[in-house]
Amino acid sequence: MSGLNWQKSSLCGSGDSCVHVAAGPAGIHITESADPRGTILTTTPDAFRVLLRSLKGEPHRTPEAPVLEVTTAGDGDTVRLHTSGAPGAPAVTTDRRRWDAFVQGVRAGEFDHFTV
């Protein structure tokens, strides 16, 4: 995760594994620090903006670009974030506790600056 300024929700405990977000020249990057493969999902600022608005329950228009999709596994504890309609593309996988901390941070506006 070097070379980028990664941010996690303030609701994620110090030293805990969490969902992290960073901005770079190629777009918005999302990862889960506990992922042993170090998977990084890269998306556009517009797609990230739609994700944030959706997680906040705010109205938004459907973008023309690929969107980020959140799915849960049958166990209800595994959460995956991936680009919709892009089979084989990187997916960030986390657990419900870490995802909930990320969503609470989103709702508190902690990641809004990535979409400006």
Descriptive key words:
116 residues; alpha+beta; 4-stranded antiparallel beta sheet; 3-stranded antiparallel beta sheet; 2 helices
Descriptive notes:
The structure is a single chain. Helix content is 21%, strand content 29%. It is an alpha+beta fold and 116 residues long. The strands form two sheets. A four-stranded antiparallel sheet has the order 1-2-3-4. The protein has a three-stranded antiparallel sheet with strand order 5-6-7. It is globular. It starts with 6 loop residues before the first strand and ends in a 9-residue tail after the last helix. The mean pLDDT is 88. It comes from Streptomyces sp. R02. Residues 4-56 form the DUF397 domain. It holds the Pfam family DUF397. InterPro entries: DUF397. This is DUF397 domain-containing protein.
Q: What's this entry about, in short?
A:
This is DUF397 domain-containing protein. This protein has about 120 residues and is an alpha+beta fold.
Architecture blueprint of SSEs:
Blueprint: E1 7-8, E2 19-24, E3 27-32, E4 40-43, H1 45-56, E5 68-72, E6 78-83, E7 91-95, H2 96-107
Antiparallel strand pairs: 1-2, 2-3, 3-4, 5-6, 6-7
Organism: Streptomyces sp. R02
Pfam families: DUF397 (PF04149)
Domain DUF397: 4-56
Q: What structural class do helix, strand and pairing data support?
A: alpha+beta
Task: Tally the beta strands.
Answer: 7
Taken from the alpha-carbon principal axes, the silhouette is globular
Number of helices: 2
Radius of gyration, taken over Cα atoms and rounded to an integer in Å: 13 Å
Distance between the termini: 23 Å
Mean pLDDT: 88
**Biggest sheet architecture:** 4 strands, antiparallel
Strand content: 25-35%
Report helical residue fraction: 10-25%
Q: Which regions are unreliable across 5 or more consecutive residues at pLDDT < 50? A: none
SSE pattern, N- to C-terminal: EEEEHEEEH
Spatial arrangement of strands, main beta sheet: 1-2-3-4
